[in-house]
Amino acid sequence: MKIKLSFKTFNYIIIGLVLIIAPLLFINNYYIIYLLSMFLIYSILCLGLNLITGVAGQFCLGHAGFYGMGAYIAALIATRAVGIPYLLELLLSAIGAGLFAVVVAYSCIRVSGDYLAIITLASAEMFRLTCTNWESLTNGPMGIIGIPYPRILSVAINNNVKIYYLGLVYFFISLYLCNLILHSKYGRAFKAIREDEIVALSMGVPVFKYKVLVFFIGAFFAGIAGNYVAHLIMFISPDNFTTNTSIYLINSIILGGIGTISGSFIGAGLMLFLTEFLRFAPAAWRMVVMAIAIIVVMIKMPQGIAGSELDYKKWFNKIIK
After folding, report:
1. For the chain, what is the mean pLDDT?
2. Contact of 77 with 223, CB cutoff 8 Å
3. Helix or strand or coil: residue 81?
4. Is the pLDDT of residue 88 over 90?
């Protein structure tokens, strides 16, 4: 009996195996494991942003604010409300980020395009400035230090390898949930809104409701990533959630493929590689190289790396037949 394996399924299996095995090969290299953990964080963030911007067509430049909300909720609970179970803290981080996104969505529900981008950008900047100036709660620009490793039931996640695998679980769950949403009636409604809001409304899609919903879902994933990064680096400050972070995420989904699940982690991985590879280059050169990479991808592959039909897919299909 022949087992037919699609190119996409094969890709997911290979990437999953690599992510599971990689830390074991570099178990004593903290830097590599840290980069892999950051890849998981950016992938989860890009999955949420791709639902908002790529699938539903709502141009959001405020994703760093949702990310920061999840991180600050986690940090405050972990350092000031000792005794609350970690899983409850995780849930509160995700829901808190989602509710913040709902407030933002309600405030800009009747605008779109550039106006929507400006309002979401302003909301993220407002959040950052609030964290900077509310010193009694957030410790201002000094940030919150001493965030402990998480503890799930009786299991202490107390080293870099264990916390990496915790992030990997979050990544796989986020991947599964995004795929489920994308192929459900909600995903079809989001795509209809992206293509034409008036037509979607005339066909019975509650556009207002689904716009708010997609913001909540996308920010929910950002809240999970924020919780994870707070426990990973054990320190957060307003500088971790600037406008540059939102632009970084937008660049990632453009490179990977807007509106595609695989494009989220492909773009996240590529941007992380470029950032680290060019770390010792002058800042101006880093910006030039990244800009050239984005321009080349947009010209040669307008739908992004994952969204373009490339010859290697045909080559792969010939091999497995």
Report:
1. 85
2. no
3. coil
4. yes
Q: What single string gives the DSSP state of each residue in 108-151?
A: TTT--THHHHHHHHHHHHHHHHHHHH-HHHH-GGG-EE-PPPPE
Which pLDDT belongs to residue 319?
Answer: 45
- CA–CA gap between residue 270 and residue 199 (Å, rounded): 36
Q: How does residue 299 score in pLDDT terms, banded at 50, 70 and 90?
A: confident
C-alpha 199/C-alpha 99 separation (Å) is: 28
CA–CA separation, 120 and 66 (whole Å): 10
- Look at residue 24 in the predicted model and tell me its pLDDT: 83
Cα-based torsion angle of the residue sequence 270, 292, 194, 109 in order, rounded to the nearest 10 degrees: 90
pLDDT at residue 1 in the model: 42
Q: List the structure tokens of 245.
A: 């972070």
* Cα–Cα dist 207/198, whole Å: 9
119 contacts 111 by C-beta, under 8 angstroms = yes
pLDDT digits over 246-257, tens only?
998 998 898 888
Output the CA angle 131-275-306, nearest 5 degrees: 105
User: What is the distance of C-alpha 129 from the center of its chain?
Assistant: 22
- CA nearest neighbour of 226 among 24, 15, 123, 78: 78
Burial state string for 243-266 with b = 16 or more CB within 10 A and e = fewer than 16: eebbebbbbbbbbbbbbbbbbbbb
CA atoms of 146 and 234, how far apart (whole Å): 6
Check residue 306 and give its pLDDT: 75
- Give the Cβ contact number of residue 181 at 10 Å: 19
Q: Is the pLDDT confidence value at 65 over 90?
A: yes
- Measured on CA atoms in the order 249, 254, 258, 260, is the torsion positive or negative? negative
Query: In degrees, to the nearest 5, what angle opens at C-alpha 180 toward C-alphas 185 and 162?
Result: 155
